[in-house]
Amino acid sequence: MKIKEFIRASHMKPWDFIIIFTLIVSSFLPLVVFGSQQIPENAEKQAILRVDGKEIETFQLVEGKKGQRYTYKSDIGETNIIEIDGDRIRISEADCGDQICVRRGWASKNGETIVCLPHKVVIEIVAIDGSETDDLIY
Ligand SMILES: [Zn+2]
């Protein structure tokens, strides 16, 4: 056992070792507590993709998260390419006539929406714990 040899070599009693270990662990505790508090803060937003009022997909908007792409294609081939980059979302490409959804750019705040009227596509950013928005729609 290497630990036992180390304790013996350092002339420490097992209790000393436990006390030192506890001190080391407790010095990291504020960091752990602080770190765990940041998780819900970062994960409080999500974007809901609805087409014609029907929920199709939900994206978690987490700051620092690696970018992802999602392609929505309707039955008749209408396409919206959705890009998620950390805690923001946009429609990067669409084959709709007006291109308003693409030109709208990034959305990242709770309550913000990206609308593609020709495709009946709505992306809405909502707080994960907030259910008020859902009550309004259903
Ligand atoms: Zn559009």
Kindly describe this structure.
With about 140 residues, the protein is α+β, with helices and mostly antiparallel strands. The protein folds into two domains: about 5-35; about 45-125, N-utilization substance G protein NusG, insert domain (mini-chromosome maintenance (MCM) complex, domain 2), CATH 2.60.320. About 35% of the residues lie in helices and about 35% in strands. It has four helices and seven strands, in the order ααβββββαββα. It has helices at about 1-10, 15-40, 100-105, 130-135, and strands at about 45-50, 55-60, 70-75, 80-85, 90-95, 115, 120-125. The strands form two sheets. Strands 2-1-7-6 form a four-stranded antiparallel sheet. Strands 3-4-5 form a three-stranded antiparallel sheet. A hairpin with a 5-residue loop joins β3 (about 70-75) and β4. The longest helix is centred in the first third of the chain and has 29 residues, at about 15-40. The chain is rod-shaped. Residues about 35-40 and about 130-138 have low confidence and may be disordered. The site of zinc ion (ZN) has 7 residues, from α3.
